[in-house]
Amino acid sequence: MIDIARIQAWAFRSPTKRPVATSFGVMHDRPAVLVRVEDRDGVFGWGEIWANWPVAGAEHRVRLLEMDVAHLVLGARAETPAGFFHKLDAQTRIRAVQCGEVGPFAQVIAGLDIAVWDMAARRKGLPLRRLIRADAPDRVPAYASGIQIAVAGDLMPRARAVGHQRFKLKVGFDLDADIAAVHDIHAGLADHELIACDANQAWSLEQAQEFVTGVADVPLHWLEEPLPVFADRGEWQTLAANSAIPLAGGENIIGEADFDHAIKAGVLSVIQPDVAKWGGVTACLAVARNALANGRRYFPHFLGAGVGIAASAELLAGAGGDGLLEVDVNDNPLRSLFFDGQEPIADGMWTCGNGPGLGIDSIPEELAQFQTLYTEIS
């Protein structure tokens, strides 16, 4: 029985030595929102709430949890984590629509859901992946992410040095320069290495087709969000029909119905829900199983702090399939300090923790310097 008696939430901001650039904006610091829930027996769980955008997003999510959601959680009982998720989702749906903040509400619920699953696994003394599937592996394949193509010459060697063999390049800045850089980078790969590209919704159909044509002789592993998520369905179908590169997306899809359509429409080969952005473990696990059952690949999207990446790894291991874990390789102590300063990567594989739940007991003391907001509700 889930019966939460205490909620704590923190907002953090870590300065960056180098801004993290995407085609739609630049992150000048690294934000994170972490949440801890505790039941009446003292069993606790950790979660993470997506807060990369807008710039003021981290503090907003903490206040949203504190003032609009916490009272629905404290003392509200549920038999299972999934029951908790669906009840809270239903309770907040109208107010989320009323204020035009469907995404932020979904993100808060996702973080709480992660924490409740962590708590449930701790109660049983199991790693989260083994609560999901008894024979889940201890390691999952991973890839280096967050590599803006203009600085790939710096970030890729660093990623290799820590054990990465797969790399995702952020494109969508300048078509001709992007195409030329993809060719140059591919030419320098070792035989066991591969690359993919992520346009972050930057292109029109014509631009996406120009890119696909321009890199036709490069065996890209996948092409992520070449079009906006709201682009006409026919444009996605046209691009898929004329691209030898598998298309990927999902971080900006909300709801099992929309994911079901994306999975069954035959356009996306790789499905990428973000456990901290929508759905938590409950709904993202359902999406992963749906994707695998329909011949798609499940690659959890993630670009945040240590709790969320641990949850993504546990979820991928539990879901099964041949998916890859996204691991940001830009400096971010909000992520790396959860793993003693260096993520557990070797030979292109992420090693999951052996502890119960997510394997995280507390926030590293060194993160206190980055805290911008804290709240506790009981």
TrEMBL record:
GO terms for biological process: amino acid catabolic process. It comes from Pelagibius litoralis. Residues 152-246 form the Mandelate racemase/muconate lactonizing enzyme C-terminal domain. Keywords: Lyase. This is Mandelate racemase/muconate lactonizing enzyme family protein. CDD domains: MR_like. Pfam families: MR_MLE_C (PF13378), MR_MLE_N (PF02746). Gene3D superfamilies: Enolase-like C-terminal domain (3.20.20.120), Enolase-like, N-terminal domain (3.30.390.10). The keyword Nucleus does not apply. InterPro entries: DgoD-like, Enolase-like_C_sf, Enolase-like_N, Enolase_C-like, Mandel_Rmase/mucon_lact_enz_CS, Mandelate_racemase_C, Mandelate_racemase_N_dom. GO terms for molecular function: lyase activity; magnesium ion binding. It comes from the Bacteria. Transmembrane segments: none annotated. The keyword Lyase applies.
